Write the structure tokens for this entry.
Amino acid sequence: MTISIPKYRLEKSLGHLAARFSRVVLRRINIALAQEGLPITADQYSFLIQLWERNGLPQGVLAEKTVKDKTTMARLAAGLESIGLIVRVPSTTDARERLVFLSDEGKRIMDRATLLVREIIGEAQQGIDEAQLETCRDVLRRACSNLLK
């Protein structure tokens, strides 16, 4: 007895489509940031946006939110700290934990970077109605949740 396995089609693969969209968006963001003379990458932006929304997060929480391991997170934070965009301070409740804050320069950079990112995301969403966008967001959230269990 032969088991019939459906043919794998890239254009139907949620993983492939999500990864491709992510690469395209990140490349566009990196180009726009560089053209504007902003000293960050899209990867650094995804770290900083977490602080822009809620300043003073523990470094471990940032690792979880950005789905990065602790070593990668420490290296990313050290790089951003070295260029003056963040400040890390020991937590008052747990000396092993470091709290991360946007510096004034980090806030200035994020104001400019976020305008660029919003323009790029707006361009990507052209011709897609809000209901379709919400369905897409919901599917991606649920798919991520399924894998992070």
Summary: The radius of gyration is 19 Å. The chain has a mean pLDDT of 92. The CA atoms of residues 2 and 8 lie 17 Å apart.
